[in-house]
């Protein structure tokens, strides 16, 4: 196999015109967002603590169309390469890494420059950093970035909150980089303080709920309906043409069509995946916030419980043995006689109704926080900017129609 082409050298710290925006933190999300911004015609300086990721970003920038990405290996050269007022986007691990990166960059920033943290940060950390930055005259945004790797590269949903001037400095860039819909770009200024991070946290909680609902719909189709993987793929594909149309339903349909490459007989990969999952934390924060604010969020809470239980694989296997001994063999549900067509339609309706309930729970939580903090959040705008990343067309249209 040919060895990969050598990395182009880090560009000199000049560019004509100099970039208005820089991005620090070139792991998966950062690298893809930087390339997206460059592709939209905005030159961008990039920096990472470990230089190898600067090199790999430059290789991609070259290979994906000679994109205007300028690499820097030191924080000073990185910051000083930017036109004033400077905007530095951070995409490093939430928590202490954000503080460490801010500490490395701020000596070179000047009053009027801005920091934009694009990670899944706890909203109170952002509120603390807004104050710390303000003491030096620096503007600050906490910006939720949704859509994963693919979204970051081709069009994420962006949820910036904090200092509105920092947003206005780069509004044109964000509007081009975000996902595009017939209702506009999937970005809006969410609100002050940690509002952007809070909204992104609830967005993730809603996504946990969506995934749990889809998993339960699958379980009923499989166990009660006895549908095969290819039948289930067709069902989700069909659902994706109607009111359930969404990214998660679309990829669920695809999952059932993938064969296990290690299985010579062509068995489905989905049946080989261990039914055990973990989580990163935003779902847990969502449920904690719901409890704090006395807002019912049963779907999101149940999805968290589902994940905790899925993690107890050994205990579940042991419990199945006990149930079997007590006369409740596995596969009991499979013995129920059902009309597949009727079942599929009922599950579709149940999934739709549950989704509406789940989104209402998330929106209620955001509304409660908005009242508590005086954020004055616009829920209809949030539904609009989630259109591509999360729920698909149906929910946005419905929520806006309901005047949320
Ligand atoms: P992703 O989920 O996108 O893959 P992540 O794990 O959230 O990424 O964050 C990884 C990024 O945080 C990397 O850019 C990493 O820098 P290195 O490549 O040098 O490891 C950065 N990061 C983590 N801890 C950091 C710290 N203490 N200071 C600066 N950057 C840090």
Automatic annotation (TrEMBL):
Pfam family membership, one:
NAD_binding_2
| InterPro entries in the record | 6-PGluconate_DH-like_C_sf (IPR008927), 6PGD_dom2 (IPR013328), 6PGDH_C (IPR006114), 6PGDH_Gnd/GntZ (IPR006113), 6PGDH_NADP-bd (IPR006115), NAD(P)-bd_dom_sf (IPR036291), Pgluconate_DH (IPR006183)
Asked if Glycoprotein is a keyword of the record, the answer is no
Associated pathway: Carbohydrate degradation; pentose phosphate pathway; D-ribulose 5-phosphate from D-glucose 6-phosphate (oxidative stage): step 3/3
Q: What is its EC number?
A: 1.1.1.44
Q: Where is the 6-phosphogluconate dehydrogenase C-terminal domain?
A: 196-404
Q: Which GO terms describe its molecular function?
A: NADP binding; phosphogluconate 2-dehydrogenase activity; phosphogluconate dehydrogenase (decarboxylating) activity
One GO CC term of this entry?
cytosol
For biological process, the GO terms are: D-gluconate metabolic process; pentose-phosphate shunt, oxidative branch; response to abscisic acid; response to cold; response to salt stress; response to water deprivation
The catalysed reaction is: 6-phospho-D-gluconate + NADP(+) = D-ribulose 5-phosphate + CO2 + NADPH
Keywords from the named record: Gluconate utilization, NADP, Oxidoreductase, Pentose shunt
Report the family membership: Belongs to the 6-phosphogluconate dehydrogenase family.
The record's note on quaternary structure and interaction partners says: Homodimer.
Q: What does this protein do?
A: Catalyzes the oxidative decarboxylation of 6-phosphogluconate to ribulose 5-phosphate and CO(2), with concomitant reduction of NADP to NADPH.
Under which name does UniProt file this protein?
Answer: 6-phosphogluconate dehydrogenase, decarboxylating
- Organism of derivation: Setaria italica (Foxtail millet)
């Amino acid at each position: 196999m040919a060895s990969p082409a050598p990395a182009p050298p880090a560009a000199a710290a000049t560019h004509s015109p100099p970039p208005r925006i820089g991005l620090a933190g070139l792991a998966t999300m950062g690298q893809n967002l930087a390339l997206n911004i460059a592709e939209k015609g905005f030159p961008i300086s990039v920096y990472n603590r470990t230089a190898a990721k600067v090199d790999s970003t430059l290789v991609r920038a070259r290979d994906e169309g000679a994109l205007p990405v300028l690499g820097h290996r030191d924080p000073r050269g990185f910051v000083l390469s930017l036109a004033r007022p400077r905007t530095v986007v951070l995409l490093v691990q939430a928590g202490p890494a954000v503080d460490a990166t801010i500490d490395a960059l701020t000596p070179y920033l000047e009053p009027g420059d801005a920091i934009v943290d694009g990670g899944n940060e706890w909203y109170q950390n952002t509120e603390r950093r807004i104050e710390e930055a303000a003491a030096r005259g620096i503007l600050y945004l906490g910006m939720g970035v949704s859509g994963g790797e693919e979204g970051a590269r081709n069009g994420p949903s962006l949820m910036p909150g904090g200092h509105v001037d920092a947003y206005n400095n780069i509004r044109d860039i964000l509007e081009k980089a975000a996902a595009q819909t017939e209702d506009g770009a999937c970005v809006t200024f969410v609100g002050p303080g940690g509002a952007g991070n809070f909204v992104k946290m609830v967005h993730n909680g809603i996504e946990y709920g969506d995934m749990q609902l889809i998993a339960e719909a699958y379980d009923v189709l499989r166990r009660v309906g006895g549908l095969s993987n290819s039948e289930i793929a067709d069902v989700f594909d069909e659902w994706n043409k109607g009111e359930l149309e969404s990214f998660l339903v679309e990829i669920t349909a695809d999952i059932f069509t993938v064969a296990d490459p290690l299985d010579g007989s062509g068995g489905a990969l989905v049946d080989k995946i261990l039914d055990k999952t973990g989580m990163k934390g935003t779902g847990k924060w969502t449920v904690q916030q719901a409890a704090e604010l006395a807002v019912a969020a049963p779907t999101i809470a149940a999805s968290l419980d589902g994940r905790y239980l899925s993690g107890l694989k050994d205990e579940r296997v042991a419990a199945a043995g006990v149930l079997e001994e007590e006369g409740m063999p596995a596969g009991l549900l499979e013995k129920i006689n059902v009309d597949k067509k009727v079942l599929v339609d009922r599950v579709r309706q149940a999934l739709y109704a549950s989704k509406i309930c789940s989104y209402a729970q998330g929106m209620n939580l955001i509304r409660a926080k908005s009242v508590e903090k005086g954020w004055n959040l616009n829920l209809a705008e949030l539904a609009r900017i989630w259109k591509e990343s999360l729920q698909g067309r149906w929910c946005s249209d419905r929520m806006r129609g309901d005047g949320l």
